[in-house]
Amino acid sequence: MKKVIILFSGYFIRRDYTRFGIEILKKNFLVNVVDCTAWMYPAFYKARSENIFKFKEHVVITCKKDFLIFSKQINSSIIVDFLPTDKKSNWIRQQLKKQNKKNLLINLDINLIPSPKRNIIKFLTKLFGLLGKPKKFIQEILKILKQKYYNSNKIKSDLTIISGLASLKKSDDKKKIPACSMDYDVYLNVKNKPINNKISYAVFVDQDHVNHPDHELLNIKPPVDEEKYYPLLVKFFKKFEIETQLPILFAVHPRSYQCRIHKLKNLLDGIKYEVTNTAELIKNSSAVLLHSSTAMSFAVLFNKPTIFLTSNELKNSWIGPRIDNFAKAVNSKLINMNENLNKQLHLQNLLKIDESKYKNYLDQYLKVPNTPDVPLWEIVTRYLKNY
Q1: What is the value of pTM for the model shown?
Q2: Is 336 within 8 Å of 310 (Cβ atoms)?
Q3: Which residues of 20-38 are buried (b: 16+ CB within 10 A; e: fewer)?
């Protein structure tokens, strides 16, 4: 059987085992997930290794030597590339192509989101604002130049998997596999399950803007302060519950639950929460509240009204423009919680859906029109078997 090697770095949890289609791929290929986290982000891996989901096909790479030893087994293999674009990742790609030109390198462009256009004036204002801090200014310039260098030196993939028209437009690869997003796979898995909504509720899709593992992994400053964020959020939720008669169900982000398990009850101060399948919670809800979560996909797929929440703190952070852009993409209500605590909420105005915008979001980001209505990895498997 042909080998499929999945290159990965990050925080691998049980959910990823399904999202990466490992059981589907194993029906036709020998599969290994080559986890480079311990080598690329040693401190992060050490701190979270107990919570990383491990399984038979999971291979941990702790250093360059580990990878060179393992790579000897990779001959004429299919390489599914989930790595970032940086020095070590580029070296890994070069090594695999250098070792065997028949290795098939697959890029994934499958989980795009609506991104705001880069505001050059705002960017330059921010950059030149650092002129009074020479050290930070130089660091920022070097960071930009370094990333441009890594992007320009990344080996071109042989195939790209795309999940929507936005991916199709962005990709310049000649060979593409038109497919769907990982969220669409989850949707297919739950869409025919019986509806379970004895009590009407609104679900809030948590992104954990305080403790999300990606902040630590990517060295990103959290956009909010815990002591400011949760009190405002809870205050707004309680106002929402009273004025709309819809109780809030807080859908805890699965990747960061372990960070907050000991204090979530106190942080939410009586707001009910669940750590379970977010897609099903959205399917069974009456409305979806969120900031800029990719779980927006499920609201679109299950045709649920969306209400976007921001705050003064969020608005002034790096996540602010992203929240605005999500709301614009589907033409949904955007509420600044700081400014609306004393304003009456009218449920009938909040539950409107712009059908054309939802359809456009589906086509642009979730599924290439006219592709088979089957899971992503089944589409990929069919393509590879005939490649």
Answers
A1: 0.90
A2: yes
A3: bbbebbeebbebbbbbbbb
Which segment, 107-121, 243-257, 275-289, is predicted with the most confidence on average? 275-289
pLDDT of residue 303 exceeding 90: yes
| 363 contacts: CB under 8 Å, gap ≥ 6 | 164, 165, 369
At CA 222, angle to CA 220 and CA 225, rounded to 5? 160
Beta-carbon count within 10 A of 11 CB: 22
Full DSSP string of 167-206: HHHH---SSEEE-B-HHHHHHHHHTTSPP--SS--EEEE-
For 285, half-sphere exposure in the C-beta direction (CA atoms, 13 angstrom radius) is: 31
In angstroms, the Cα distances linking 71 to 2, 59, 65, 66, 154 are 15, 11, 10, 9, 19
Structure tokens at 5: 């090697």
First to last CA, the chain: 15
Distance from the Cα of residue 152 to its chain's centroid: 24
Residues sharing a CB contact under 8 Å with residue 358, sequence separation 6 or more, in sequence order = 300, 303, 330
Tens-digit pLDDT profile for residues 180-207 = 999 999 999 999 998 887 889 999 999 9
Q: How many CA atoms lie within 13 A of 242 on its CB side?
A: 10
> Residue 205: which of 174, 173, 248 has the closest Cα?
248
Task: Let me know the angle formed at the C-alpha of 365 by 364 and 371, rounded to the nearest 5 degrees.
Answer: 80
What does DSSP assign to residue 367?
B
Name 30's bridge partners: 3
Which amino acid makes up residue 369?
Answer: P
Q: What is the pLDDT of residues 120-174, one digit of tens each?
A: 556 556 656 666 677 776 776 777 788 888 888 888 899 999 999 998 887 777 7
Report how far residue 281's alpha carbon sits from residue 261's, in angstroms, rounded to the nearest whole number: 20
